[in-house]
Amino acid sequence: GYINRNNYYEKYLYGEWRQTGFTEDSRTAGVTWTGRIINRNNLDGMLIHRSLYFDRSEKMRSGSEIDLNFMYLFPAYDDLISRGDGNVYLNDRLTTNLSYSTQRRGIWRKSFGVSVFQEGYDDWATSLSGTVSLYPNENITVDLTVKPLWSRDWLIWVPNDRQLASFSRRQLSVNFGTTWFPAERHEVRFRAQWLIIDADLKQAFIIGPDSRLLPSNDAIDNFAALNFGLQLRYRYEIAPLSNCYVVYSRGGLDYIYNQEESTLGLFGKSASLRKSDQILFKLSYRF
Q: With contact defined as beta carbons under 8 Å apart, do 271 and 194 qualify?
C-alpha cells in the first residue's frame, strides 16, 4: 500500500459515533462524530508527530453537508524539513476547518470552506476555498475552484542558503475545468490550473545545538513561484475499456526573485508560461 514516508512507526487510535433517528421535521438527517489520536516516532526513537483530532460531520435532509474539525499538534521534531542539516523542534500548533457543501439544485452545486491554522513556528495562516459546479445540460459540466491563502509564518528550507526561513505568504490556487460529451463514445475535456505563491522574508533561522531555531540576520531574497498548466483532451471509445486519446498540454513553473508585482498581477502573468508544449496520441486497447 501507500505510505506518506518511510523510517517511522506509528500508534493510531480511532473512534466514530453516528447519530441517527432524528425526527422527520428535523433538518438534520445524521451526525457523525470522529476522534483520532496519532503518535509517530522515527526509527531513531524521536517523536515526529503527535496529534489529537476531532471532527463533526452533519448531513442535512436537503442533501447539504456541514463539516467542522479541529486538530491539536503537540510539540515534536521535524526530521525532514532541513533536508539532512539537522532536526527541528516545533512548538504545539492548532488547525481548524469549517466547510459547507450543497446538493445539486437545478443546474448548480456549491461548496465553501475556511481554515485557520499554524504551519510555521508561532504565527497563523488563513485559507478560503470555494467551488461552483454548473450543469447546463446532461452532456456538459463546468467546475471552478478558487483557493486564496494568507500566511504570516510559512516555515521552509532555503536551498541555496541551506537554512530555514519564515515567510509571509500570499497564495492563490485556481482550477477550472469543463467536460463535454458531444455524442455517444465521444468526450472532450478541458482543464486549466494556476498556482501563485508570493513570499516575503519574515525571519531567517539557523538550527541551534538543541534543535531549536535561532534567529539569524542573514539576507534571504523574497520570491514568487508561478505554476500554470493547461490540457485539452479528446477521447473516443473504440469499445468497452478500449479508448483512443488525443491530448494537447502546455504550461510550466517559474521563479521570480525580489519581484514587486501584486499576487493578481502574477496570476495574469502565469498564463504565458510555455516551458512544456506538447501533443500526445495514445491508444489503450483491451484484448
A: yes
